[in-house]
Amino acid sequence: MSDAEAPTAAVPARSSGSAIAVLIAVALGALTAVGLGVFGKVHEPQFFSINLAGFSSGLAVKSWLATFAVVLALFQLASAFAMYRLIPGGKAPSWIGTAHVWSGRLAVLASVPVAVHCLYALGFQSYDNRVLFHSLFGCFFYGAFATKMVLLTSKGLRGWVIPIAGGLVFFGLVYVWLTSALWFFQTNGVTF
Fold it and tell me: Coil, strand, or helix at residue 157?
């Protein structure tokens, strides 16, 4: 074997390791999504609502927390575009990576009380299409989030893997918001 052939032989091994890392991450994400869905389906709903002083109902709290998470996710999208240099204007500011990480953490933290309430108080519901898709995409969102977190710890991934995972997390959160908070605001008005 010549020296020119050695790098070519090494590339498939790295690619297969990368593919295995992606498959493991996707499998863990799928297990997370299915696990949440199964828990929500078999758990007896408690109909206990989260509430905070100043809000009219638990649904209002959930809607505003979800809206806050989506606003942070929009910043995540914009900051990711800046980091990947997809926005005109040259180099991203040095603080954008840190802001991206922290806005993602805050978005997930804002979504956790909403998810806990949905799973514990209401469970996985399917009495109409909006609620069914909300339940499905709520599970999908956390599965995609788990997948992305596992992928972030993986080395040697192709450059498009993390952006695709992040895009799926963003899509899941926005769809959950559209089928819950937006519905709440359209039905009840933009109230606290």
Answer: coil
